[in-house]
Amino acid sequence: MTSQHFSANGNGMIADAMRQVDPDVMAAYPITPQTTIVEAYAKFVADGKVHTEYVPVESEHSALSACIGASAAGARVATATSSQGLAYMWEELPIAAGMRCPIVMANANRAISAPINIHGDHSDSMSARDTGWLMFYAETAQEAYDNTIIAFKCAEDENILLPAMVCLDGFVTTHAMERCVLEDDSTVKYYVGEYEPLYPLLDTEHPVSHGMYANIGDMYMRHHLTTRRVLEGAAPIIEKHGKEWEKLTGRPFELVDAWGCEDADHIIVVVGSAAGNARHAARILREQGRKVGVVRPRVYRPFPAQQVVDACKGAKAVAVLNRSDAPGAQHGPVCEDVMSAFYTAGLNIPVNDYIVGLGGADISLDLMVQVYDELEQRVAGEYTTDIAYLGIEE
Question: Which among 21, 36, 59, 106 has the fewest CB atoms less than 10 Å away?
Answer without folding.
Answer: 59
